[in-house]
Structure formats: structure tokens, C-alpha cells
Known about the structure:
Layout: H1 7-16, E1 24-25, E2 33-34, E3 42-46, H2 47-52, H3 58-61, E4 68-69, E5 83-84, E6 87-88, E7 90-93, E8 96-97, E9 114-121, H4 125-128, E10 135-141, E11 151-157, E12 161-171, E13 178-188, E14 196-212, E15 215-229, E16 262-279, E17 282-305, E18 311-338, E19 341-369, E20 387-406, E21 409-426, E22 432-448, E23 454-465, E24 480-491, E25 497-515, E26 523-542, E27 546-555, E28 558-561, E29 578-589, E30 594-605, E31 608-609, E32 617-618, E33 621-632, E34 635-642, E35 650-653, E36 659-661, E37 666-674
Parallel strand pairs: 7-10
Antiparallel strand pairs: 1-2, 3-9, 4-5, 5-6, 7-8, 9-10, 11-12, 11-37, 12-13, 13-14, 14-15, 15-16, 16-17, 17-18, 18-19, 19-20, 20-21, 21-22, 22-23, 23-24, 24-25, 25-26, 26-27, 26-28, 27-29, 29-30, 30-33, 31-32, 33-34, 34-37, 35-36
Amino acid sequence: MTDSSQKTEYVKVKGRARTFVAHTSNGGTKTRTPLIETPQALTVITHDRMALLNARSVADAMRYAAGVTDYGSRDDPRGYSGFIRGFNADTYLDGTRLPDAAASQSFSIEPWGLESMDIIRGASSALYGSGQLGGIINAVSKRPKIDQTNEVDLQAGSFSRIQGAADVGGSLNKSHTLLWRFNSLLRKSNTSFNNILNNEVYVAPSLRWLPNANTDITLLANYEQVDAGSSSQFLPVYGTVLYNKYGQLPVNFNNGDKNFDVYSKRQLSVGYEWSHRLSDNWTISQNMRYAHIDLLYRYVTAVSFLSDMKTLTRQALLQSSNYNNVTLDTRSNLLFKTGALSHELLTGVDFRSDFIALRRGQGTAPSLNVFAPVYRPVTYPGYANKINTNETETQTGLYLQDQISWKKLHITLSGREDFSQSLTVSNSNNSKTPQSNTQFTGRAGLIYNFENGLAPYAAYSTAFLPQVGVTRLGSPFLPLKGRQVEAGLKYKPKKIDLLLTADVFNLVENNVLTSDPTDSTFSIQTGEQRSRGLELEAVGTLPHNVHLMASYTYQEPKITKSSIASQIGARPQAIPMRMASLYLDKSVTFSSKSNAGLGMGVRYNGNTEGSLPNTFIVPSQVLWDLQAHMDFQRIRVQVNATNLFNRRIIAACTRNVACSYGSGRSVFSTLSYKW
């Protein structure tokens, strides 16, 4: 087990995180622990890996990782809304949870501002509190450092894309105790689809103070502005997935209205990270962040597709929301021994407060002939005539974790007690819905490291997630409760920078909301969902400087209990049972000043269900990616192409009038200068 209190090691690990494959992470245990000693499936995506793939979003960055899907690579400016192991993923920034009330209010993560990203698969409530059973995506911000490499990028390509980005920093004094860094990005771009834009302004300043050898204080801030026109396609299944006598809808078709649709988001976060080493074996640390979102979301969406196979009935929605989020996590990390056992004892308390003011108006919009569209004026819905609520939620968690090592055996025991409260106030009728939950979650895992690099492991963990609302009889909903069993094998060869992982898992979630058979406008908690499967992953650098990313996922998500008989045994929408990917990149050095590289990858997503209950299948997809680069001294030229053969694909459907195409061929050229 690694001693995270040693500052020299901390600097060394950050240096490794800039390589193609990382071998340590804070994500799985909240301590700096080697992945080969962590009894959980965990993928660390480094900054170099994101740069190689030209990651334009969180979904792009996670390509070629096991267990993760992103609605089939569609362009959606609202944010990431994919799955891990068949369940929705929670998003975190620097170890604390981001606002995620709904996809439209999600806090966007800009990959340019990240040092790395952790994909923590499986139940993580024992350390992080309430959350989805499938796992966590934890983004790690870039921070000031002494060995800063400055970089300026210019990018152009498909969809009239123009982008500039900068990452600069350094020391403010000769003693290098005060460091700064500034990340920025400006983008103007269309997408594959009519009236869906990809315009963004992003700035992220940070300041780090090292007053002495034992104290480290970093201030972090970022501001992001997203202006995207419309948000997503909502297309009928007939004319996209299924046959329509009038033909197939064009890939770029959007059933909204360019004179009405608006997606405009402004988000800001400000916080700090502080750590102090009290002794050689005892460190205390704290993270705090305030985040704010202002959203204006106006769009025309589909209601139904008439039997004439060409008329789409539509509705207009007007949504505005104001979201405030505060997180605070305080930890103590103590290293000690009891006889032959080594311990790393983590104790902590974290607090999260959320407030959202949600206003949603809804009204009828003119119908549209999707094969001969004539756009008539859209009448604005009445302000907040559908939803007019203020919601507050707080969560306080006390957690304890002991990482015990005896020779080559490592045991992780985690436990947490959470106290959550929420209050939903309806401004329409002044009704109030309070909820209060207390929940214990735990985790136990063990892993053994053989001398030959093999490391078998097994783990059991639980999760919970409060649900806002009441039953028909007025009883507050109970939290979702989940449990997971996982076993696997990791392998780290001694002479190759490579990490191989194989795991099997079984996840079960209870208290899922299903329709009340007495009154379908209400819900009851008789539902259960299960997901079981296998994941294989290989990441690293092979001999002769060949980078490798490979993964295979087989999963069986299934609804096992429901008040609706037709749903029992069904697979939830938009989740494939099989995914596979392979990426190889070869670099050649010509001299001390120049080199070049070529990479190619292929990604397979299996078919998905398009509705619930399952009535039609969305076909599987195979996509090819290409990357080439050349370096000369401080200059790099890189070209990235995705969906190289311009395959016409359906990204996903969630109902029979909510289908989206995947992006067509995209080619981008990037010119970088480093110093």
C-alpha cells in the first residue's frame, strides 16, 4: 500500500498521470492506491489519452473503456447521459458530486480542463454517499505545477468548426511556493444536425500555494458558457429504425423549430483543495466547491406519430432553472501498523447541499409533416404552467475505511452512514413534500498480488439513492437500494507498461418506481432491476512504442419486478448487451526533434431496445476512427477522424418518437505549440 502522505511521491504520481496508462488513482478508495491493489474495476483515462482521441466531450474521452455506453455517440450539448453496467452514471469533479438533477440541468465537463478521469465501476456509496448503482465518473481538474508545460492549440474541421485553446502557467515567485495556471477554450461549431450547435466559452483559472513542505492549498475555478440552438433529435421510429413508405428521414433532420428552440447554459464553480501533513504518517485534507447553473431551455419535441406515417404531433416546452450546489469533504488519512498488518485508515465527513428552482411551461405546437416540413409559428407556453417548484436537498455522510495489508494480501473495508433530507415546495398550490432518510452502506473487498503480476480479487458493496415524491396515499418514496457482487483478475506485467483487467459482476436494485395499478398517474415501489455481466480491458504501451486500448463488455440488464406485467423480463432502453473496441497507435521517431504516429480504432455497440415494453430493436453499429500526428520540435500537427466510413447509424431510441441519429463522419485538424 502506498504512503499517500509523502509529498515527493505525490509529485511523482502526477507526472505518471500524464502518460498513456496510469497505475494509481484516488478514485476507488479516496487514497492514492495502485490499481493493482484496488479490489474494484477502475479505469483511469489520462490527459494524453484524451488528447490522442481528440476528446470533445466526456463521452468521447470514455471511448474504448469497458462497461460504459453513451447513447451511441450522438451530439447532445446537454451533457453526458450514458450508463455504467446498465445503470445511469453519476458525475463528480475532483471527488465531489456535481449537479445532476436531470440531463438538461447537468453540469458540463470540458475535457480540455482535465488532468485525468476515473471510471469507477460499481456501487460506491460506502465512500461517496447516495448515488447510482452502476458507478461514478470522476473528472480531475488540471492544477498548477512547477514543471508546467504550456500549450496553445488551434483546431478546425467538420461542421465549420473553429476552436482555440490555451493551457499556460508557472511560478509567481523565485521560491516556487506560489504557482498559477490558466486554461481556456473558445469554440464556434455546428454539428451533424440542423440547428444543434456546439458553441462554447470555457475559462478555468487556478492558484496553488505551498507555504511549507507540509501544506498544499489550491484554489480552483471554472466558467463555461454553452449556446447550442436546439438540444437533440426526437424522431419517429418509422423512417429511422423501421420502414416507412415515404422513405427514410435525413440524418441531419431536426423536428424542432429553429425560430423557437434555444439551449443556453451558464455555469460557474469556485472551490479549493487543502491538505496538511501533521506527521510522516498522518495527513488531513479538505475539498470545497460551490457550483451554479443558469439554464434557458426552449424546444419543440415530439408527442406522437400519426397512422398516415408522415405527421408528427408536437408540443412546445419552455424551461428555465436556477441550480446551486455546495459540496464539502473533510478527510483524515493515518498510516500505522498492528503487528504484521499495515493499515491506511481513512475517516471523513462530507456535506452536500442542492437547491433548484425549476419552471417549466408546456403547450401544443403545430403538427409537422416530417417528409415535407412546413414550419408554422410556435405559440409560447404559459410560464411554469406545468412545473413550478423549489427543491432543496442536503446530505451529510460519515465514513470510515481501513485498507489492511499483510504481505501480498490487501483488504479494503469501508462503511458510511448518510443522513439526507429534502423539501419540495410547489409554488402553484403551496404544497410541501418533506423527505428524510438515514442509510448505512458498506463495502468489503480483498485482492492478492502474486509475484508474477497476477492479482485476483473479490468484493461486495451496497448503494442507495433517495427519490423525490410520494405515493398515491401520500407516503414518501423510499430510497433506491442496491447491492453488488464483483470478482475479477488484474495483471500487470513487470517489463511492459500494460494493465489487463477481467471481472464479472451482479448488480440488483430494489424500490424502483413503477406505475400504480390503481391510478397510473402515481407510482409505487415494487420494481427491481438487475444487471450481470463480464468486462475485459487492456490499456498500455506494447513493445516498439505501440499504444493499446481494448475492451469487451457483455451485460444482461433486465427488469425483474414491475407492476406492469409486460415490462418484467424486458431490457431497459438504449443499453446494449455487447460492446467491444480496439485501438492501436504506432509512433516512429525520426530524430531527437521529430516523430510521427498513426492510430486506428474500431468500436462495436450491440443492438438496443427502443421502447418499454420492448417492441422494436435499434440495430447494432460498428464505427472506425483514425488518428495521425507529426511532431517537430515544439509543434504538433494532428488529424482525427471519427465514423471514418460515414456509417448511417441510429444512436438510440427511448420511445417510438424519440430516436436520434449518431454523428456522421467528423474530421478535425489540430495545430499545437508547446513550450
